[in-house]
């Protein structure tokens, strides 16, 4: 069909049933990699949007089609999707627990503290949800750790100033994890990645389910971090600031130090 001018000229036009999208959206939403490649080769725009401002990459992430995600990123798709969309590829992958897709998005420079424009209602507080928060409440530990490794802010409380101003007491991820009864391993990781352990004030409330996590937090408040951990946080914060957090493996330093910076356990010593 694309050999004929009459079809070629509508290659980027929206249509179809349901959410009107382009042919690229249609191909990607069913995971048809070869159709995607043909369309791109004939001039389909990689970041065209459907009526909900969703890009083909967003559709591929939602459909969990890793091969399509890779093809689109390889063709230069914006890893953050379109800013008019309420959601983002990173938020969707974090919520769905798609660790491989999430890794590809982050490797291609997606914003790890991706903002959400949607407010969530919780028991008593309105919070702005970010990828870290979604990974925690949906119980996706691997995604949670991956986000932190790529520099997610452990004190994330939403990034949209206008949104934040409409919330009386914005909660950090740590507070939300305590409220939702996320496992103690989530709390431990947040602490290891430098969350402010003095921020949550709610831990005295009866609504807090998990005593183990609260005990951990209280213990942490009494014990400052070891100097080594402080150094790791400082180095990682700096790398994040200069957009080089994904380059730790390339640093010119001993493997044991690189592993330490990446929170990898030291290999067992062979006697
Ligand atoms: C979002 O889509 C609109 C319309 O296609 C486009 O003009 C704009 O540049 C896109 N924004 C981003 C961040 O991709
Ligand atoms: C969000 O958290 C940061 C700490 O990381 C804090 O400095 C900031 O004041 C908080 N924002 C609001 C609106 O509470």
TrEMBL record:
PROSITE patterns: ANK_REP_REGION (PS50297), ANK_REPEAT (PS50088), SOCS (PS50225)
UniProt keyword annotations, A-Z: ANK repeat, Repeat
Domain SOCS box per the UniProt entry, residue ranges: 218-267
GO biological process: intracellular signal transduction; positive regulation of protein catabolic process; protein ubiquitination
ANK repeat positions: 19-51, 85-117, 127-159
Record carries keyword Manganese: no
Biological pathway: Protein modification; protein ubiquitination
InterPro entries given in the database record: Ankyrin-SOCS_box_domain, Ankyrin_rpt, Ankyrin_rpt-contain_sf, SOCS_box, SOCS_box-like_dom_sf
Pfam families per record: Ank, Ank_2, SOCS_box
SUPFAM superfamilies documented for this protein: Ankyrin repeat, SOCS box-like
Protein family: Belongs to the ankyrin SOCS box (ASB) family.
Protein name stated in the entry: Ankyrin repeat and SOCS box protein 12-like protein
